[in-house]
Amino acid sequence: MRKLYLYILFLTCSITLSAQTFLFPSSGYLEIETDNGVLFDDGGENNNYSDTINALVYIKAASNNKSLCLKGILDLEDEAFSSLEIYKGDTSSKELFGIYSDHDTISLQSEEGFTLRFITNTSSPKSGFKLDINAISPFPKNVNAIINYDNNSIEVSWEGETSSYWIVEQYNKNLPTFHYTTTENNIVLDSIPTIDCDFSIEYSIFSKEDSLNSSCLKTYFKFSKDTLVINADICDKSSYTDNGFNEDSSGVYFQNLTSAIGCDSTLMLILNVHLPYTSDTILDTICQGDIYQEHGLEEDSAGVYISNLQSIYGCDSTLIVKLWVNPSYYDTIKADIYKGNTYNEHGFNESVTGIYTQDNKTIHGCDSILVLDLQVDNVMFPNVITPNADGINDVFEIHNLIEQEVFYESELRIYSQNGKLIYSVNNIKKREDLWDPQKTKSPDGTYFYIFKGKRKDKTLKYNGAVEVLR
Q1: In 3D, which of 275, 299, 272 has the Cα closest to residue 285?
Q2: Domain limits at 413?
Q3: CATH code at 445?
Q4: What is the pLDDT of residues 393-413, one digit of tens each?
Q5: Strand locations in 171-216, DSSP E?
Q6: Using one digit for the tens of pLDDT, what is the confidence trace for 158-187?
Q7: Residue 230 CB contacts under 8 Å (≥ 6 apart), including other chains
Q8: Domain check: are 320 and 369 in the same one?
Q9: For strand 277-287 and strand 316-326, is the pairing parallel, antiparallel, or unpaired?
Q10: Do 270 and 282 sit in the same domain of this protein?
Q11: What mean pLDDT is predicted for residues 443-463?
Q12: Residue 65 and residue 105 in one domain
């Protein structure tokens, strides 16, 4: 068994069904959903041409699982001012079929539909166009043909819908008629003619439904004994130099060779040149302390960064990333309360000395951490003083008063048993401010004290008795 190769071409024919009519808008956006229609600029219908047109039209098939065919010839007499841009897919598409001008013929097929931008900028335009729209079954993909010398037949297979939806039609009527049988995505053509170096057969393959509806596009393939098709993709400003070619533009190129068995053979190159994607710009954000690790970048600071990537075809793709760093917050609150109170500000509800944390998020999703350093104050008064100069319990020491700085205002009064004021001090800040019976020459016995203290959350007053023993 020897393999045969094929190449795909496109044919056009007229539409016979009644069609919906659509007028290209003078501005804005129009979405068309149809299986059979006509789109025209005013000039294409009644010579009432539009001027200063800059609008978008998106065309898609009304039926599911259908491709769209778009065909027509542009009549742009003011070609210096008018052009028609056609993209594959919806308005977000960047895949450009082409920019068409005066007398250009349009014959395109797309499963994703078309987006058209017609631009006219002249005070007296004489341009117009009329494009036919027709829905067809998607073309089969990966068509493959094999010639079998053993049973004198050709087998055709493809990826696509079930074979019952497809027929094979002879294109060159001067060639012998073939009979065929079908299986799933497969057709066998038998009774082939004698195969020699001049063997060449052309056939169409398309949907039965499209045949009845007079499809605007048919695809046909050509069998020949030694025809090889090369599909290649290159980037702009580069050249395809394999297999004896040296080409740098999209197109179909041929080389005539001699096969191993002495027959003329054809090498066909279908070359697609892909433009680079340049200067695409995206805006993105990270939180302070994070690292941006997208699109090949690794950045932690705000700025404008350029990432040099490659498309699926290996072509340069330049991406500009404008990065903004949203702040994260870490704040600490130092607070003190008196024993018995509760700190209930900023979402806290604490009454015990300690460190407390709240993990929050900003509106940008970044960390906002608030730490509470809480001190719970509690003063204690002695009931015995032993002023014997041993450094232990020699003075009227109010525990935690000085260390915790409990009160920003305070006063202490010491009285004898008969009510005589023995000692008085305001705003105790150091140990020397406390009452020392030795300094006041106070004898052993019972004394009475009154203490007042002011703080933000409370004003306290204590009174009690203390015994002086030596």
Answers
A1: 299
A2: 384-468
A3: 2.60.40
A4: 999 999 888 887 778 889 999
A5: 179-183, 186-190, 200-207
A6: 665 544 444 454 444 444 444 444 444 555
A7: 242, 243, 267, 268, 269, 270
A8: no
A9: parallel
A10: no
A11: 88
A12: yes
